[in-house]
Specification:
By secondary structure, the protein is mainly β. It folds into two domains: 5-55, Laminin, CATH 2.10.25; 60-112, Irregular (Factor Xa Inhibitor), CATH 4.10.410. 7% of the residues lie in helices and 31% in strands. It contains one helix and seven strands. It has one helix at 105-112; strands spanning 5-11, 18-19, 33-38, 42-44, 50-52, 75-81, 86-92. The strands form three sheets. The chain has a three-stranded mixed β-sheet, with no helix packed on it. The longest helix is centred in the C-terminal third of the chain and has 8 residues, at 105-112. The protein is elongated, with a radius of gyration of 19 Å. The two termini are 31 Å apart. Keywords: Disulfide bond, Protease inhibitor, Serine protease inhibitor. It comes from Ixodes ricinus (Common tick). One of its GO terms (molecular function) is serine-type endopeptidase inhibitor activity. Residues 62-112 form the BPTI/Kunitz inhibitor domain. This is Putative carboxypeptidase inhibitor smci.
Length: 113
């Protein structure tokens, strides 16, 4: 095991550790995995290492271009502009669009900065 891992015997594979960007599971699987798991307070990332939550990679949603969507409402929302590394306002139509849409600039900054 690495320094951020601990060896566990017969641990539920779905509850033995957390992954960046995934919510805590509602229920644990009944399987029995014996291996190195991320220590408490650490999260598994795609390359297999365990990092603190603050070091989890930013979500893919922050790289998407803003989409107004097909509806005709004029709702002010915020999106993360990856080119300028800033949260910016745009007009959302009320339906469709994508996940790079936040109600407040604070939500945008928390999710993407």
């Amino acid at each position: 095991c690495t320094k951020n891992e601990t060896y566990k015997e017969c641990q539920s594979s779905s509850c033995g550790e957390r992954r960046c960007g995934e919510p805590k599971p509602d229920a644990c699987t009944k399987d029995c995995a014996t291996r190195c798991f991320c220590k408490s307070g650490y999260f598994r990332i795609e390359n297999g290492s365990c990092v603190r939550k603050k070091d989890c990679p930013k979500k893919d949603r922050c790289y998407l271009k803003p989409k107004t969507g097909p509806c005709k409402a004029s709702l002010p929302k915020y999106y993360y502009d990856y080119d300028t590394l800033q949260c910016r306002q745009f007009i959302y139509g009320g339906c469709g669009g994508n996940a790079n849409r936040f109600d407040t600039i604070e939500e945008c900054q928390k999710a993407c900065k």
